[in-house]
Amino acid sequence: MTTSVPTGDTVPSSSEPGWKSYLADLWQAPPSAKAALAGCLLLMLVSPSGLSAMTTFIVPAFAMDTGAAKSAGILVFVSLPLLIGPIVLPFAGRWVDRLGARRVAIPSAVLYAALTALIPLCGSSVPALAVVLILASVFGFMSGLAVVFKVVSTWLPQHRGIGFALIGVASSLAATVFSPVFQWLISGSAGLGWKGTYLLVAAVIAVVAIPTTVFLISEPQEPQEPTQPTAPRVTGPEVDLPRLPGIPLRRAVRTRIWISITVSLAFAAAGPMTVRQNAVDFFNERGFTEATVSLSLSALFAASVVGLLGGGMILDRTDRPRVVVPMLAAVPVGLLIAFVNHGSTPLLFVAMVLLGFATGAESALGPFLIARYFGLASFAQLQGLTLAISTLSLGMSPFLVSAMQTATGSYTVPVLALTALTVVAVVLAAVLPKFPSQWKIGNPPDQTIEPA
Fold first, then answer.
1. Most CB within 10 Å of its CB: which of 25, 45, 75, 125?
2. What are the TM regions of this chain, as residue ranges (predicted)?
3. pLDDT tens, position by position, 244-259
4. Which segment of 124-128, 192-196, 445-449 scores lowest on mean pLDDT?
């Protein structure tokens, strides 16, 4: 079974400007492109991101069942997988770039399902659970995030922004829908408990992810008779893929552009995540009830979907990198409003909507900027490395802010420090240089021109 199809079937750029032609081109995408996009969305539904709502109910059930401290449950089920799992993404991206998406996704999906099924068999052994959970997270990220951004980038070169946005929407909607389902399964009337739920989830992963990687995931292939000279092909065991245009990994990571993008996204993402994880205590300190805070978090999620879709379409229709600035600026503005607000419910919702919109837009920003500045030659590796660094920020920032609040007795110092970091993120985005010319599949990889 081939892993790719002719490049001529990719979604072409519209010859007419305007949103109507932009959406029409996306709607008229070839069947293989639509199937690949659908496959990416399905993979995100059962990815660690899509299933993240489960841990909220798993941790207390595990603590009650085993007698372990809740802090130990959070460490094992949340912190370690979140911090260690994404580290594999740069290496997985390298394999995707060299071997192709399906050759990485298929075995990763099989191992993801198998390791998830092993989790309840570890019983109350915290070390064994930690090892299996980390490995399941690793292969979950490899079968999902390491693959889907590369597939979208190659199939939808003129619609990457909206493609990346749909990926984020899929995981966000999955987490929202699955949240009450997991509560019902684990501690509700279904009575499966945390062990039975993991076995059910493993079966769902196997039924959804494995067939998806086999039948839906693909990448476009170089045309049989290209009209322009092409670079030599990269060959490997049982693979013959074209070299895509772009900047090599080692050169890209030494540029100011990549460093600015990565630091900016890491700092900006820390703001909304920290507010979400500390929302009850932070806003109770400002006179809001838990019920009001819960509703404001729902507003944050709704705004994140708008940010994903709106931000993605805006990115696809612009050649100016400074459009990123107002998207990221929503974070420090939202943090400041949340910090100074005491008792005003409308202002609370304004702050959460701003943070939510920025959260959604940031999900599409990283892969879009990497593909736009550095091309596709090392895209999966660069995206994996950027995502790994951003995930470290997401995992550490809520804990650090909470620890500083405990030490100082107030959120003033940590929140102001966090706000300052998000301002730095906006400044770094504002000084990004002009985009290079569009990279074209079928052209030789750039080996001479490096972004300024």
1. 45
2. 35-59, 71-92, 104-121, 127-149, 161-186, 198-217, 257-275, 295-316, 323-341, 347-370, 382-401, 413-432
3. 676 777 888 888 888 8
4. 445-449
Which alpha helices (H) appear in 46-192, and where do they start and end?
A: 55-66, 70-74, 80-84, 89-99, 101-118, 126-143, 145-155, 160-186
Determine the Cα–Cα distance for residues 150 and 145; give it in Å rounded to an integer: 9
* Angle, vertex CA 242, rays to CA 237 and CA 247, nearest 5: 110
Domains of the chain: 30-221 (1.20.1250.20), 249-430 (1.20.1250.20)
Whole-number average pLDDT of the chain: 79
What is the per-residue pLDDT across 306-318, written as a single tens digit (0 to 9) for each?
Answer: 887 777 677 767 7
Distance CA 55, CA 51 (A): 8
- Residue 148 burial (CB < 10 Å; 0-12/13-18/19+)? buried
Residue 220 dihedral angles phi and psi, to the nearest 5°? -70, 150
Query: Whole-model pTM?
Result: 0.64
Distance CA 367, CA 316 (A): 12
Rounded CA separation 344/131 (Å): 46
Identify the band that residue 111 occupies on the pLDDT scale cut at 50, 70 and 90: very high
End-to-end CA separation in angstroms for the chain: 42
| Phi then psi dihedrals of residue 203, to 5 deg | -65, -40
- Alpha helix segments (H runs only) across 216-278: 249-252, 256-277
Nearest 5 degrees, angle CA 406-CA 412-CA 418? 95
Secondary structure class of 425 (helix, strand, coil): helix
Residue that the structure tokens 């990687």 belong to: 213
Which conformational region is residue 293 in: left (phi greater than 0), alpha (psi within -120 to 50 degrees), or beta? alpha
What CA–CA distance (Å, rounded) separates 143 from 272? Answer: 26
Tokens of 427: 């400044």
Determine the distance from the C-alpha atom of residue 228 to the mean position of all C-alpha atoms in its chain, rounded to a whole number: 35
Q: Residues 325, 429: contact at Cβ < 8 Å?
A: yes
CA distance 285 to 356: 21
Q: What contacts 88, CB < 8 A, 6 or more positions away?
A: 138, 141, 142, 146, 384
Q: Are strands 234-236 and 239-241 parallel, antiparallel or unpaired?
A: antiparallel
